[in-house]
Please model this.
Amino acid sequence: MSAPARKQGGIVTVGYSGSEAAQLAVRWAAGYAAAAGLDLLVVHAWVWPVFTKNLGPVKGVAGSGLRHSAEAILAEGVELARAAVLEAGVAHPRPAGGVARPDTVTSAISEQAPPPAIPGTAPGGATSPGTAPPGTMPPAVPPAAAGAAPPGVERAVPAGEPQPAGPVVDGVMEAGLPAPVLRDAARGAALLVVGSRGLGTVLDQVAGSVCLDLAGSAPCPVMVIRRPRNPGHPIVVGVDASPRSPATVAEAVRLAVVLGAPLQLVHVATQRGGAREEHGRHGTLRGQELLDHAVDEARGLASGLEVSGILREGHNAARELLAAAAGSDVLVLGSHSPLAGPGNTVSGVLHKAGCNVLVTR
Model:
């Protein structure tokens, strides 16, 4: 199992709606961006233009109107991210060629794009991104010296001025429903961070499907935040015999390195005794043999990383993975192809997980 190459991505995209879940997501994303040396884009899906054309202020009432409200929500999200970055207190030098990356991973990982996943000290999140229409909030922190601004994102400081050492925080809002807005905003990103809920009490029915939609269709790994970080607890990753499993393990290794957490591989053996076994060089690894091989490959991707394996048996993979991940910091799963959706296991886990969940690509 070798670590496959990943697409380059210099930013973390996080959805913000103003809800408590979204606040957790922004804090978590800011902490991760600071730890991984990535920039941060806070996106707000402005849903009201989908339902009404009455977006302007009420005559004679200062600060009113749906557009003003959306701009205020975005401003709040950007300021929250800015404060969380400062709180994280992790500064990375900015080389001429791009952002800094964790240097504790061996070449199998360090030659790939920055880790998609989990630093900081808080989670949760919701809503969306996109291109900035009139009224878009200017970014709270100046842009990085290297790299152009994402399309539609206005920068607060001219490109020629001195740049800060930490992550650049920008904000953008786009009219539309959360899932498509966030999906578009995450193109080229290293990670998309969302909360387990997103739009508050009024639109919870709409937001309920956002995580599942993005888990199956987002162009980059998706981190679903349910709670703040659980430092010292393991990153748990499900492994199987599918072609996508090596990429899932590689993402979990990157995440564990960034978080400084141990990695625990879990394989659920669903076949009972009596099933036909394949042998020879074309045979498929199964059970303990598959797990041991995956553990060895994971250890080869990052020197010094604590890696262990657990073999479980059962008919329901989602249930067994959730049981194995009880008390973990993050559960990492691989998704099916975008056309096939997230798959039954990912769907089952997202409905019931008590920990944060990373769905890889």
